[in-house]
């Protein structure tokens, strides 16, 4: 049973609310069967986030092609809109964080990341869908892996495989402290950065989605109670509306933060020796 | 009364990042009020600091959910 359906059922006598467990979040639309992967059984299936992701990729491709196919020096309305988004990523994120010397090769990557994450996040509040695909940890992990590979790759390319580790050490340290700082820096470069990047996006979308569900379904449940409690559902739904607007802001901010941090990691791997 | 004590843990864990986020934006507003032309430089720094502080609260939420079911 889906979590939503479970919450909509009238509660039996003496039954209380339960915290959700992972099984409630696994609702495949189409199941194909199971495969054995590293000793654990995995189900091959199409899920709602996958469908949302496919829809957003299709719409984004259509939008970008339609507004830039007849690109002109004096832009049409659609082209001007696309250019505004592109300029925001190019100048506001890539150039500021990577530096004006070598930011250009990374602009397409960051722009793709930004529009993909932003659109997928907004799918969390766009009415017929209302499913933020970034609220499934697998998708942020995939995006983070791309960023991870890119910033280590450019770092190694610029400083060399051994030079990259030397580069992590700030200069002017006394000799005995160097191993500790190197260990800390390696922890930052290889564990903390990708972990926080993926978990921040996932956690925000997940928490936002839960918040909306709590206010909307909670309001519905109060409404079903009858009597005075029905009246309480009105402020609950007003809160749901206010939180939807707040979520639109948070969702934009998370897409921005993701590309901002990705750009700062790339920029950090590209700076000259300390 | 039934419930889950780890949720109280999450509530406590959210206090620190909340104060941190408040301090960061207070400093950002102060900076812009004193020197409005510095806004463009301060904004990415403020958002970056906000993201780093907020990540801690998000970790607490994620940890609340990934504990073993029934534990």
How much β-strand is present in the residues of chain B?
A: under 5%
Percent helix of chain B: over 70%
Overall, the morphology of chain B is elongated
Oligomer: heterodimer
Note the gap between the termini of chain A: 57 Å
- Approximately what portion of the residues of chain A adopt beta-strand conformation? 5-15%
Largest sheet of chain B: none
Query: Which structural category fits the helices and strands of chain A?
Result: mainly alpha
Q: Tell me the structural class of chain B.
A: mainly alpha
Please mark out the parts of chain B with pLDDT under 50 across 5 or more consecutive residues, or reply none.
Answer: none
SS elements, strand count of chain A = 2
Q: Would you list the SSEs of chain A in sequence order as H and E?
A: HEEHHHHHHH
Percent range for helical residues of chain A?
A: 55-70%
Give me the Rg of chain B, rounded.
17 Å
The strand line-up of the biggest sheet of chain A is 1-2
What does this structure look like?
The complex is a heterodimer of chains A (274) and B (71). Chain A has helices spanning 3-8, 48-68, 77-98, 107-122, 138-159, 161-168, 178-225, 228-270; strands at 28-37, 40-47. Chain A has 274 residues and is mostly helical. In chain A, strands 1-2 form a two-stranded antiparallel sheet. The longest helix of chain A is centred in the last third of the chain and has 48 residues, at 178-225. Chain A is globular, with a radius of gyration of 23 Å. Chain A starts with a helix and ends with a helix. Chain B is mostly helical and 71 residues long. Chain B has helices spanning 5-34, 39-66. Classes of the chains: A mainly alpha (274), B mainly alpha (71). The interface between A and B is medium-sized, with 23 and 18 residues. Chain A: InterPro entries: ATP_synth_F0_asu, ATP_synth_F0_asu_AS, ATP_synth_F0_asu_bact/mt, F0_ATP_A_sf. Chain A: The chain crosses the membrane at residues 46-65, 103-122, 134-154, 201-220, 227-246, 252-271.
